[in-house]
Write a sequence for this structure.
């Protein structure tokens, strides 16, 4: 089964700024891996419901109690750029 | 026996008899590290200062009559994907170079509470993605049994350290076999506990429904007592399970008489090395002679489990690794917009295997392909769970090789991702269904390379798992230790 992948689209979704050459390399490797992975489609028998959890445990809740969070200065000390208690990032929206 | 060769149990005995101090134990592993690190590269960080302080405290406590249990004063290594407050934690990725966590993972807190001395952080495949440790951004680790070969992965640094004696025991993480396979390839014991029994809080996430922390050790008993120290419910992990620690020690000497053990038919044949198959068959025969009833069982879905694994794990990874965005921690490559900054940072910071898996997972989850790939993989997962449930209606435990091959030469599979993925074929079913699995060394092949034997049990079946594993260890009588070649200067 030949799998055609729009690799540039996938890389954009994943926020990976790869070169055209890198994209071509990954595209052909992914096609091989997906050909093997496509064997999941051979599952026979009754349609199974599917599960994202290995054991099907119940949802867990913790007590809704206040407790101290991590120290802000310590957390921000790991940021590439921080100012006045905030992380600093370039604009997320285009401006005119 | 030199000090660094002792098991945790033996070292603990020497400590309590007053024969050695915790500082002596630390000196022994640090000396061993200084003799072997140039060949093995098991560690990314040695925290000599922190370890020295903890060992001194352990000695002072013992002198005051405070004994925190079997791990008290024992030098233990941690895979570098577990957060340690104040000690660099990189997950072997450039994107986290220099990252110093502001908190300890729950397992780290539990080890400290148990009096363990944390020696350092061990090498791994970047973000635990790989089976050879060659995907580390800081260079591969090598196998103490043959330094031209890989130690397995992704917990290859932890395995190499324990096998070489530069730690008495270690923690690793196992998403598809990353504790059991390197344990097998380095001749030590490696355990993946039941999903949810050991907290994942502070473990840098790869695939959250599969990831599980567990011990690598020189003996089955060491694995049991390390598990006891880290086992238990944690409100900081929503998938943590509240189950009492089963009375594993009670059954370590019980033997297998009266147990029914299933041999998995699908985990044999093409691709399995003859030495691995014959050692495993001999052990099955020995278990039978020791009183176990042996039956062949078929788990047909195992044949497509690997395919499901390589959709589920990358899908979850692609979501988990979205957090590495160049804004809150780790590497940043500047850009005009947030999106450009993220795309540049991630392209620069992630290595090829991590990039490949993020792309694969993103594709498997994307509109138009979700149902055919990720959705179908989830259905395979349930079918596999049904297969195991059917098998456990008639057997108490299942056995197989841990890895189809012994340790392979460095460089052999690194350019062929699919052949690397196939090395996980025996181990990843247990991750998909959340069951416990353990690898026990049973012998050496004709080249002198270790072979591991895998035992699996139902969820929360650690007691029977260890009962069988302890008997396998006794029957194998595996006492060989690697002789580490000097590097040519």
């Amino acid at each position: 089964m030949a799998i055609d992948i729009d690799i540039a689209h996938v890389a954009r979704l994943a926020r990976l700024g790869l070169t055209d050459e890198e994209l071509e390399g990954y595209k052909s490797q992914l096609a091989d891996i997906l050909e093997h992975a496509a064997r999941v489609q051979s599952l026979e028998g009754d349609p199974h419901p599917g599960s994202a959890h290995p054991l099907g445990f119940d949802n867990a809740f913790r007590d809704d109690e206040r407790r101290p969070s991590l120290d802000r200065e310590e957390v921000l000390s790991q940021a590439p750029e921080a100012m006045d208690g905030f992380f600093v990032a370039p604009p997320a929206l285009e401006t005119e | 026996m030199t000090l660094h060769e002792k098991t945790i149990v033996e070292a603990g005995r020497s400590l309590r008899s007053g024969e050695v101090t915790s500082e002596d134990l630390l000196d022994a592993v640090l000396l061993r590290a200084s003799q072997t690190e140039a060949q093995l590269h098991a560690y990314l960080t040695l925290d000599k200062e922190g370890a020295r302080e903890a060992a001194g405290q352990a000695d002072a406590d013992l002198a005051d009559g405070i004994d925190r249990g079997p791990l008290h004063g024992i030098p233990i290594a941690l895979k570098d994907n577990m957060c340690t407050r104040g000690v660099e934690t990189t997950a072997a990725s450039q994107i986290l170079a220099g990252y110093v966590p502001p908190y300890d993972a729950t397992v780290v807190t539990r080890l400290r509470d148990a009096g363990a001395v944390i020696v350092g952080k061990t090498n791994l495949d970047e973000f635990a993605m790989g089976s050879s440790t060659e995907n580390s951004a800081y260079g591969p680790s090598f196998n103490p049994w043959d330094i031209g070969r890989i130690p397995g992965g992704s917990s290859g640094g932890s395995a190499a350290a324990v096998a070489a004696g530069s730690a008495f025991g270690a923690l690793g993480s196992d998403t598809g076999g990353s504790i059991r396979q390197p344990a097998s390839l380095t001749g030590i014991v490696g355990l993946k506990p039941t999903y949810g029994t050991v907290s994942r809080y502070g473990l840098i996430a790869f695939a959250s429904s599969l990831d599980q922390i567990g011990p690598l050790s020189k003996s089955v008993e060491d694995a049991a007592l390390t598990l006891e120290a880290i086992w238990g419910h944690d409100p900081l992990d929503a998938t943590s399970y509240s189950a009492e620690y089963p009375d594993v020690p009670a059954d370590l000497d019980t033997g297998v008489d009266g147990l029914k053990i299933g041999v998995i038919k699908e985990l044999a044949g093409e691709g399995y090395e003859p030495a691995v198959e014959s050692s495993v068959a001999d052990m099955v025969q020995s278990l039978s002679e020791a009183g176990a009833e042996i039956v062949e069982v078929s788990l047909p879905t195992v044949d497509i489990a690997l395919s499901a694994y390589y959709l589920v794990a990358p899908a979850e990874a692609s979501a988990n690794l979205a957090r590495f965005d160049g804004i809150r921690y780790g590497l940043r490559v500047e850009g005009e917009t947030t999106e450009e900054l993220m795309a540049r940072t991630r392209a620069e910071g992630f290595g090829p295997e991590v990039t490949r898996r993020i792309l694969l997972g993103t594709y498997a989850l994307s509109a138009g392909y979700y149902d055919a790939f990720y959705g179908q993989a989830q259905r395979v997962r349930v079918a596999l769970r049904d297969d195991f449930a059917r098998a456990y209606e008639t057997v108490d435990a299942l056995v197989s090789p841990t890895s189809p091959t012994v340790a392979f030469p460095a460089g052999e599979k690194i350019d062929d991702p699919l052949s690397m993925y196939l090395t996980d074929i025996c181990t990843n079913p247990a991750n998909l269904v959340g069951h416990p699995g353990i690898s026990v060394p049973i012998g050496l092949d004709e080249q002198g390379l270790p072979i591991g034997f895998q035992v699996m049990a139902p969820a929360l079946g650690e007691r029977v798992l260890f009962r069988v594993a302890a008997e396998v260890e006794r029957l194998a009588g595996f006492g060989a230790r690697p002789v580490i070649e000097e590097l040519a200067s």
Residues 257 and 291 of chain B are 4 Å apart (CA to CA). The longest strand of chain B covers residues 437-444.
